[in-house]
Amino acid sequence: MLVGDPHQLPSIAAGGLLAGLAARLEPIELTENRRQHHAWERTALERLRDGPVEPALAAYAGHGRITHGRDRSEVFERLVADWQSTGDPDATVMIAHYRRDVAELNARARHAMRARGALSGDELEAGGLHFAVGDRAVVRRNDRQLDVRNGERGTVIAVDSAAGTLTLRIGARERMLPRAFLARRTRAGDPSLQHGYAITAYVAQGLTCRTALVLVHDDADREWAYTALSRGRERNQLYTVMDTARDRHEYAPAAPSRDPDQRLVSALGRSRQQQLASDQSADLVRRARARDELAQARERRGRSRSADRNVGIER
After folding, report:
1. 106, 91, 105: which is closest to 235 by C-alpha?
2. Which one, 32, 49, 105, 271, has least CB within 10 Å?
3. What is the pLDDT of residues 79-130, one digit of tens each?
4. Percent of the chain with pLDDT over 70
5. Strand order in the sheet with 92-96
6. Does residue 284 lie in a domain region?
């Protein structure tokens, strides 16, 4: 049994299976959005999912859900300030595209938590990160024996620095994570436990929260934005960084500066939805046939015009 949405984030490696099967079979479809509370947001998400994106973004802008900043530092400061103002780190999550942005947002959020006395007791270092009672954390590795799964968010409720363990409350469950689990790394080399104030959209897939604060760059795409902006039940806020320097600027000139709203439309109008190789080859064949038919039609029209001109000359 396969369950999913091909309009959300594509596979990191080869993908397109779900969309390919859905096109060939008769899938059972869930068409009613029961997550977002506001009717306008359910409509906007549907438009963002299927395109065009302009009406969707106009709806978000009309409800004050898009925040532009003059530079990266200003956007980050505003985002973390809005996160603090909710006063609910359990039901509010920041979502970003790049892991470096996630790390910076987590560091800023944790500093704010420490400043207002929300963290207490000893700190435990695990995987290069520090955790204390009150920290929000996200599990990054499955472990059946411990009954924890990749992507689960929880609150640190106990730390034993001598034993090198901590206890995480995940919903109604409490799980003690031993030193061995915390010391191991994921396949990508990441710590098994990370701070959970900010997460990537890949980690956020399947998450439901009250408020999602989404940081988007101008190299995002429709599937990424649709996934990130559909996490929050009551509020999904978009923060844009449209002038960030990237590696490509070292060997290619930067694109001309444009209005941030136009750049946002351009970014989220781009799709990276995957296709099966068989579908892609069939699509290429159809396009080649269409090009051949068009070329033949043009050639026939050209011969017809030439014949008409010759007839005119003879007359």
Report:
1. 91
2. 32
3. 999 999 999 999 999 999 999 999 999 999 999 999 999 999 999 999 999 9
4. 89
5. 66-68, 232-241, 209-217, 92-96, 198-200
6. no
